[in-house]
Amino acid sequence: MKEPKLRTLVHKKISFAGKIPQTAPDCFIAPNCFLIGNVILKKNSSIWFGATLRGDTDLCQIGEGSAIMEQCYVENSIIGDQTMISHGAIIHKSQIGNSVLVGIGARIINGAKVGDNCLIGAGALILPNTEIPPNSIVIEKGKIIRKTTDNDLKYIQESVQEVQRKAKMLKEILQRQTG
Question: Any bridge partners for residue 46, and if so which?
Answer without folding.
Answer: 28, 67
